[in-house]
C-alpha cells in the first residue's frame, strides 16, 4: 500500500495540451457574456485539466466511515477544439462514462478543472452555470431509459425550452419542436406520441433532438449507438455527422467500439483504469499506436474479413482489468503488459510524446503514457 | 440451471453419424408467440444443419429469430406463450420434438449444451462455482463429492482460470465477467457434449476479454471435435471463427454461405448492406452506407420479401412474392457449394 | 411523409423519410398517440375483475351520495312496535322491512344504506391523508437521500412499529365526540408508513433513470425533476397500494366502531357491534351490515388487484 501515495499524484499537465487562457469574470454578467461569445473553429473550447473523481467506499449504516475509494477518474487532461470530434475509448470500468458525467456537471469532481472558454465550470453557479448547461448537451447510451415514458415526444424535446425560456418564446415552441423532429429524420406529426411507440433507433433520434434543442456548442455522446442494431447504427452515425456540419458542433464521443470511434473522430484518447494511456489523431492512434494497451486493444478487435483471421497478429492480454479501488502502482497497465519491467511498477509514466520521438514529426510522435513506447502497426499487419 | 436428471439412455454418439446424417439438423422450423397484441411469427421455416467439428454462425439483428431458434433446439422455450406448429429438430437423425420430456432432458446438457450471454444470471449465486461444476459429475456420473471437486478443478484449469484450486470454493460474484463466462463454458463442457450452442457469448465482454474467450472456445471445440452454433450480431466475431453462416431476417434465413464466400460476394442485399454499413478499423472511410428504415415489427411483417421496404433493389415482385431460399450458382451455372439466397434478384446481387 | 426541409441533403432526406414513416411498414391506419396510462386503461377495460369491482363501487357511491334514492325511511327513527322481533321479509325488496328491524325498531335496511356513507367517507378520507403524508415523506426521503433519508426512514420505522389498530384506539379513546374527521385523522396518523416506504423505493429507482439525469443536465430545477419526471413514474405502485388499503381502512373503521371507538352515528361497525348482542334472537341485525362491509372491502381490493395487473411494467 506504500506505493499508493505516490500513485495518487495526478499526472502532470503535458506540453501538448495548450495553455489555458483563464478568464476571471468579475460579475455574473461578464461570465455569461464570455460563455455566449463564439469560439473560432479549431480553437480550444473545452479544456480539461487533471480531472479526478474518487467515489468513497464506506462502511457502516448510521456512522459511515471511509475505508477507501474507487479511483474512477484519476488525473485526466485533454483539450476539445471547436468543430472537432474527440473520441474516448476504453473498456468497462476505465472511467470514460464518469468523465462524461463530470463534464456535464452531473457529478462533482474530486479535483481538477474543466475550463469552458476559459472559465472553470466546476466553480460556476447561478446564471453562468445555466448558460454553460445550455451550451453543453448530452446524448445517452440507452434510448430505452433516457426518455421519460410518461411524457410525449413533444414534451420531451420541448422541455429544454421550458427550462431555458429565453431560447424560444412560448408561442414558437411547437414549431421549433417539429423542426427538430424533422432535422433528426422523424415525422413532425409524431409530436404527441409516447417513447414506447418508437423503436430503439427512433428513440435515439429523439434523444439527439432533445440535445440539439438549445443550439449547444458541445454534445457529449456516451455510447450513443451501442444499444442499437447494426443496420440502425450506421443511420445514427451518419445523422450525427450531418448535424455536426450543419450546426457547427463539437463532439466528445465515448464508446467501446473502436471501429465506430475511428470513423467519427478527429482525435482519439484511449483510457485505462481512470487515466489516458494514449491520445492523438485517429491516424496516429490506429495506424501508429505506441502504447502497448492501445496495441492490444486494436489487435483484439474482430475484423469483418475472414481472410485476415489466419494472418493477423493477435495480442491476447492475460487476466482482467484490476479493480479501480486498488489500482497497481506505477503504470496501471503493467499487470497485463508484456513489456513491464521494474521501472513500470515504480514510476508513473507521464502522458507525453515519448523521448525517442520528441524530435521527429512522424505519426508516432504523439502523447503516450508508456516508459517503453514503441510503434507497432497491429491493424494492417499481415 | 442446476437441476440435472438421472442418466437416461440417449442415442449413442456413434449412431446416425456414419451415413452422413448431420449432427443437428433443423427442418422447416416455425415458432409462434401468442401475445396480447396478436400472433408473432418469430421463426418462419428455418433450415440449418451442423456437423461435428463445424462452426455455424447464425447472424441477425434483434427480432430476427436467431435466439428463438436456438432456444427451440435446446428445448428451453416457454410454451406457452411459444408454440411450435411445424418443423423438425433432428439430433443425429432423431426428431427431438417427438421425444418425451425425459428423452429430451437426457440430451440437454449431456449431448447439447448452451452458453448464454449473461453468465452472472445463469449461475446460481448461493452455490460455489466448484459445487455447481461438480454437480454435473455427481448427478450424471455418480462421483463422490471429493472426486467431483477434483474434476471441477480440472475443468477450471481447462478453461484457463488462474489458481483454479484456490478459487474452486469462490462464488460467482467473486469472478470477473470474463472469468464467469469461462465458468459457463466449463459447465457446458463438463459432460463433453457433441454440440454447443453459444448465444452472444461475448457480447457483454470487453474487446480484450472477448478475444480470450472466443479463442478458448475455438480451441476446446477443436479438441473435443464438437459442433458449435454461434449466435451473434457481430460480423467481426463471425469472420473470426465461423465455418459457415446463416443470415436471418424477420424469422427467415435469407442467405447461407461458407464464411469466406459470404464476405467476398454476398448474395442477398441485406447481407451486402450489413457488410457495407460497418465502419472499418483499418481505414477512415467516407460516409457510412446505411440500410434505410428499421427492422420490421414482427406483428406486421411486410408482404412479400420482409426486407423489401429497406431494399435498394426492390421491385414489384418483392412486394408480393416471398422469395424462397434457393441455391446460388456461378454465372456459368456451376453450383456454389453450400450457398443459398432468398432474394428474387440474387443473380444481380452476387454477380452484378 | 414529412415535409423535409431544404437544408437536409438528399440522401439523408430519403433516409429520414423512411425512418419517419415509422419504419418500412406500409402503415394502413396511423398509430395513435398511446400513453402508458392509456394502455393501462385499455387493459383495465378488458378485465372482468375491474368491471365487477367498479360496478360495485359505483353503486356504493350512489348509496353514499344519494341514500334517499334507496330508502325513504329515516335510519334513526325507532318505532318500538316494530322492534327486533320483526323478521326480515326478503320478498319486499327495498321496503323498510326488507331486512327486518333492530332492537329499537329501526329499519335494518335503512341503517345499512345510511351506514355506507360513514364507511366510504372514512375509507376515502384516510386514503387521501395517507397518500399525501406517505407520498411526501417517501418522496423527500428518496429524492434527497443522505441524512434526510436516514431521519425520515427511521421515523417511518418508528411509526411502522406501532400496532396500527392499537395506536388508533388509544388516540380515539381520548375523544368523546368522534366525527369522521377525527377517525380519519387517527387512522391517517398511523397508516402512512406503507405508502412512504413504497414511494421511497420507487423514487430511488426512478432517480437513477437516464431521463432524470438528462433533465438535470439541462439544468432543470428540483421541483421540476420531482413533479414532472419522478412523480409520474412512481405513481403506479402508490395507486395500487392506496386502492387496496382503501378497503382495509373501511374494515378498520368498522372494527373501531365494533369496539365502540368509531364514529358516533350510523355506521356498519356500530350496527355489527349492537347486533352481536342479539345474535341468538335476531341474526339479521348483524348479518346485513356485515355482508355490505365484506362486499365493499372486497370491491376495493379487487379494484386494486386489477389496477396492479394493468400498471405492472413487467407485464408490458
From TrEMBL, chain A:
Against SUPFAM superfamilies, the record matches this protein to: P-loop containing nucleoside triphosphate hydrolases
Give the record's GO biological process terms.
Answer: peptide transport; transmembrane transport
The annotated region (Disordered) lies at: 1-20
Which CDD domains does the UniProt entry name for this protein?
ABC_NikE_OppD_transporters
Record flagged with keyword Acyltransferase: no
| Domain of life of the source | Bacteria
Q: Which Pfam families does UniProt cross-reference here? A: ABC_tran, oligo_HPY
Show where the ABC transporter domain sits. Answer: 46-298
Query: Gene3D superfamilies from the entry?
Result: P-loop containing nucleotide triphosphate hydrolases
Question: What NCBIfam families does the database record attribute to this sequence?
Answer: oligo_HPY (TIGR01727), PRK11308.1 (NF008453)
* Family label: Belongs to the ABC transporter superfamily.
| Name used for this protein in its record | Peptide ABC transporter ATP-binding protein
TrEMBL record, chain B:
Answer yes or no on keyword Oxidoreductase.
no
This protein's UniProt keywords = ATP-binding, Cell membrane, Membrane, Nucleotide-binding, Transport
Determine if Nucleotide-binding is one of this entry's keywords. yes
InterPro entries linked to this entry: AAA+_ATPase, ABC_Ni/Peptide_Import, ABC_transporter-like_ATP-bd, ABC_transporter-like_CS, Oligopep_ABC_C, P-loop_NTPase
Superkingdom per UniProt: Bacteria
Any one GO cellular component localisation term in the record? plasma membrane
**Where do the record's region annotations for Disordered lie?**
1-20
List the molecular function annotations (GO) for this entry.
Answer: ATP binding; ATP hydrolysis activity
What parts of the sequence cross the membrane?
Answer: none
Q: Where does the ABC transporter domain start and stop, copy by copy?
A: 24-275
Q: Which PROSITE patterns match?
A: ABC_TRANSPORTER_1 (PS00211), ABC_TRANSPORTER_2 (PS50893)
Kindly give the membrane topology term recorded for this protein. Peripheral membrane protein
Looking up CDD domains in the UniProt record yields:
ABC_NikE_OppD_transporters (cd03257)
Gene3D superfamilies annotated for this entry?
P-loop containing nucleotide triphosphate hydrolases (3.40.50.300)
SMART domains assigned? AAA
Its family?
Answer: Belongs to the ABC transporter superfamily.
Give the protein's recorded name: Methionine ABC transporter ATP-binding protein
Protein's organism: Streptomyces shenzhenensis
UniProtKB/TrEMBL annotation, chain C:
Q: Name one Pfam family in it.
A: BPD_transp_1
Read off the InterPro entries from this record. Answer: BP-dependent_transpt_permease, MetI-like, MetI-like_sf, OppC_N
- Record-given protein name: Peptide ABC transporter permease
Q: How does it sit in the membrane?
A: Multi-pass membrane protein
User: What CDD domains does this protein map onto?
Assistant: TM_PBP2 (cd06261)
| Alphabetical list of PANTHER family matching this protein | ABC TRANSPORTER PERMEASE PROTEIN, OLIGOPEPTIDE TRANSPORT SYSTEM PERMEASE PROTEIN APPC
A GO cellular component entry from the record: plasma membrane
Positions of the ABC transmembrane type-1 domain: 116-304
**Which classification does the entry list for the species?**
Bacteria, Bacillati, Actinomycetota, Actinomycetes, Kitasatosporales
SUPFAM superfamilies the UniProt entry points to: MetI-like
Q: Which GO terms describe its biological process?
A: transmembrane transport
- Main localization is membrane
Keywords of the record, alphabetical order, are: Cell membrane, Membrane, Transmembrane, Transmembrane helix, Transport
Compartments where found? Cell membrane
State the similarity comment.
Belongs to the binding-protein-dependent transport system permease family.
Sequence intervals crossing the membrane: 48-70, 121-146, 158-175, 181-199, 234-261, 281-307
Amino acid at each position: 500500500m506504500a506505493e499508493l501515495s505516490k500513485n495518487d499524484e495526478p499526472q502532470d499537465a503535458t506540453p501538448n495540451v495548450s495553455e489555458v487562457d483563464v478568464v476571471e469574470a468579475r460579475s455574473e454578467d461578464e461570465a455569461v457574456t464570455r460563455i455566449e461569445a463564439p469560439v473560432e473553429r479549431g480553437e480550444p473550447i473545452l479544456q480539461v485539466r487533471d480531472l479526478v473523481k474518487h467515489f468513497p467506499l464506506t462502511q457502516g449504516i448510521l456512522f459511515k466511515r471511509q475505508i477507501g475509494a474507487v479511483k474512477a477518474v484519476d488525473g485526466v487532461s485533454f483539450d476539445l477544439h471547436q468543430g472537432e470530434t474527440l473520441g474516448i475509448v476504453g473498456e468497462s470500468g476505465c472511467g470514460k462514462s464518469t468523465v462524461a458525467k463530470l463534464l456535464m456537471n452531473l457529478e462533482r469532481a474530486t479535483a481538477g478543472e474543466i475550463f469552458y472558454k476559459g472559465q472553470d465550470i466546476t466553480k460556476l453557479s447561478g446564471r453562468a452555470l445555466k448558460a454553460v448547461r445550455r451550451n453543453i448537451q448530452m446524448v445517452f447510451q440507452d434510448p430505452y431509459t433516457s426518455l421519460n415514458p410518461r411524457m410525449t415526444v413533444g414534451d420531451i424535446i420541448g422541455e429544454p425550452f421550458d427550462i431555458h425560456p429565453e431560447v424560444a418564446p412560448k408561442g414558437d415552441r411547437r414549431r421549433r419542436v417539429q423542426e427538430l423532429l424533422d432535422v433528426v429524420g422523424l415525422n413532425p406529426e409524431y409530436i404527441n406520441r409516447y417513447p414506447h411507440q418508437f423503436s430503439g433507433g427512433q428513440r435515439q433520434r429523439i434523444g439527439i433532438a432533445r440535445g440539439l434543442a438549445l443550439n449547444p456548442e458541445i454534445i457529449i455522446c456516451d455510447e450513443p449507438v451501442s444499444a442499437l442494431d447494426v443496420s440502425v447504427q450506421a443511420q445514427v452515425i451518419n445523422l450525427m455527422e450531418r448535424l455536426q456540419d450543419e450546426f457547427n458542433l463539437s463532439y466528445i464521443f465515448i464508446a467501446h467500439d473502436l471501429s465506430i470511434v475511428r470513423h467519427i473522430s478527429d482525435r482519439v484518447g484511449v483510457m485505462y483504469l481512470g487515466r489516458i494511456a494514449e491520445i492523438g489523431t485517429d491516424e496516429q492512434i490506429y495506424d501508429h499506436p505506441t502504447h502497448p494497451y492501445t496495441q492490444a486493444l486494436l489487435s483484439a478487435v474482430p475484423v469483418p474479413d475472414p481472410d485476415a483471421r489466419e494472418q493477423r497478429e493477435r495480442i491476447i492480454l492475460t487476466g482482467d482489468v484490476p479493480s479501480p479501488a486498488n489500482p497497481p502502482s506505477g503504470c496501471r497497465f503493467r499487470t497485463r503488459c508484456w513489456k513491464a519491467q521494474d521501472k513500470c511498477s515504480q514510476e508513473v509514466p507521464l502522458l507525453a510524446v515519448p523521448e525517442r520521438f520528441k524530435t521527429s514529426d512522424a505519426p508516432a510522435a504523439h502523447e503516450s503514457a508508456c516508459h517503453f513506447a514503441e510503434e507497432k502497426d497491429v491493424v494492417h499487419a499481415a | 440451471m442446476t437441476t440435472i436428471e438421472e442418466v437416461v439412455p440417449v442415442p449413442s454418439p456413434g449412431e446416425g453419424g456414419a451415413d452422413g446424417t448431420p449432427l443437428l439438423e433443423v427442418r422447416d422450423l416455425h415458432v409462434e408467440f401468442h401475445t396480447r397484441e396478436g400472433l408473432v411469427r418469430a421463426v418462419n421455416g428455418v433450415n440449418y444443419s451442423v456437423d461435428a467439428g463445424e462452426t455455424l454462425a447464425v447472424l441477425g439483428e434483434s427480432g430476427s429469430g436467431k435466439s428463438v431458434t436456438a432456444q427451440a433446439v435446446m428445448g428451453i422455450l416457454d410454451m406457452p406463450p411459444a408454440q411450435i406448429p411445424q418443423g423438425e429438430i433432428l439430433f443425429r437423425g432423431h426428431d427431438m420434438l417427438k421425444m418425451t420430456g425425459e428423452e429430451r432432458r437426457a440430451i440437454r446438457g449431456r449431448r447439447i449444451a448452451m452458453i448464454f450471454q449473461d453468465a452472472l444470471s445463469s449461475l446460481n449465486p448461493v452455490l460455489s462455482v466448484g459445487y455447481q461444476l461438480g454437480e454435473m459429475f455427481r448427478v450424471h456420473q455418480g462421483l463422490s463429492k471429493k472426486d467431483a471437486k477434483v474434476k471441477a478443478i480440472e475443468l477450471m484449469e481447462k478453461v484457463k482460470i488462474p489458481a483454479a484450486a484456490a478459487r474452486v470454493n469462490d462464488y460467482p460474484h467473486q469472478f470477473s465477467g470474463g472469468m464467469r463466462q469461462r465458468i459457463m463454458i466449463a459447465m457446458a463442457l463438463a459432460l463433453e457434449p457433441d454440440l454447443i450452442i453459444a448465444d452472444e457469448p461475448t457480447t457483454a465482454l470487453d474487446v480484450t476479454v472477448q478475444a480470450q474467450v472466443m479463442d478458448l472456445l475455438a480451441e476446446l471445440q477443436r479438441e473435443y471435435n464438437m459442433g458449435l452454433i454461434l449466435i451473434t450480431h457481430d460480423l467481426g466475431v463471425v469472420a473470426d471463427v465461423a465455418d459457415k453462416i446463416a443470415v436471418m431476417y424477420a424469422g427467415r434465413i435469407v442467405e447461407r454461405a461458407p464464411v469466406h464466400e459470404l464476405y467476398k460476394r454476398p448474395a442477398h442485399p441485406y447481407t451486402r448492406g450489413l457488410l457495407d454499413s460497418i465502419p472499418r478499423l483499418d481505414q477512415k472511410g467516407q460516409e457510412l452506407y446505411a440500410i434505410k428504415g428499421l427492422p420490421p415489427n414482427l406483428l406486421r411483417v411486410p408482404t412479400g420479401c420482409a426486407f423489401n421496404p429497406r431494399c435498394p433493389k426492390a421491385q414489384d415482385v418483392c412486394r408480393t412474392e416471398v422469395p424462397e431460399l434457393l441455391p446460388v450458382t456461378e454465372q456459368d451455372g456451376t453450383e456454389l457449394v453450400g450457398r443459398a439466397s432468398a432474394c428474387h434478384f440474387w443473380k444481380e446481387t452476387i454477380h452484378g | 411523409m414529412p415535409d423535409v426541409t431544404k437544408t437536409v441533403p438528399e440522401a439523408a432526406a430519403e433516409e429520414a423519410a423512411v425512418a419517419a414513416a415509422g419504419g418500412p411498414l406500409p402503415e394502413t391506419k396511423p398509430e395513435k398517440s398511446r400513453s402508458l396510462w392509456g394502455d393501462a386503461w385499455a387493459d383495465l377495460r378488458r378485465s372482468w375483475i375491474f368491471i365487477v369491482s367498479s360496478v360495485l363501487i359505483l353503486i356504493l357511491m350512489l348509496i353514499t351520495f344519494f341514500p334517499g334514492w334507496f330508502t325513504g325511511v329515516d335510519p334513526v327513527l325507532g318505532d318500538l312496535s316494530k322492534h327486533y322481533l320483526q323478521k326480515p321479509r326478503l320478498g319486499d325488496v327495498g321496503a323498510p322491512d326488507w331486512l327486518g328491524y333492530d332492537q329499537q325498531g329501526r329499519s335494518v335496511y335503512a341503517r345499512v344504506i345510511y351506514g355506507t356513507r360513514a364507511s366510504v367517507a372514512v375509507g376515502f378520507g384516510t386514503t387521501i391523508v395517507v397518500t399525501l403524508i406517505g407520498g411526501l415523506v417517501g418522496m423527500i426521503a428518496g429524492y434527497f437521500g443522505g441524512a434526510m433519508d436516514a431521519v425520515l426512514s427511521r421515523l417511518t420505522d418508528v411509526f411502522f412499529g406501532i400496532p396500527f389498530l392499537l395506536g388508533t384506539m388509544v388516540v380515539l379513546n381520548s375523544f368523546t365526540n368522534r366525527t369522521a374527521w377525527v377517525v380519519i385523522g387517527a387512522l391517517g396518523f398511523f397508516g402512512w408508513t406503507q405508502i412512504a416506504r413504497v414511494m421511497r423505493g420507487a423514487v430511488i429507482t426512478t432517480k437513477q433513470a437516464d431521463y432524470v439525469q438528462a433533465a438535470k443536465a439541462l439544468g432543470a430545477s428540483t421541483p421540476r425533476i420531482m413533479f414532472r419526471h419522478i412523480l409520474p413514474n412512481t405513481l403506479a405502485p402508490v395507486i395500487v397500494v392506496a386502492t387496496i388499503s382503501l378497503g382495509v381502512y373501511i374494515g378498520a373503521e368498522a372494527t373501531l366502531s365494533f369496539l365502540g371507538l368509531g364514529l358516533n352515528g350510523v355506521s356498519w361497525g356500530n350496527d355489527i357491534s349492537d347486533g352481536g348482542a342479539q345474535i341468538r334472537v335476531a341474526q339479521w341485525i348483524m348479518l346485513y351490515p356485515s355482508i355490505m362491509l365484506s362486499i365493499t372491502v372486497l370491491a376495493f381490493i379487487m379494484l386494486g388487484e386489477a389496477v396492479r395487473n394493468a400498471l405492472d411494467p413487467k407485464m408490458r
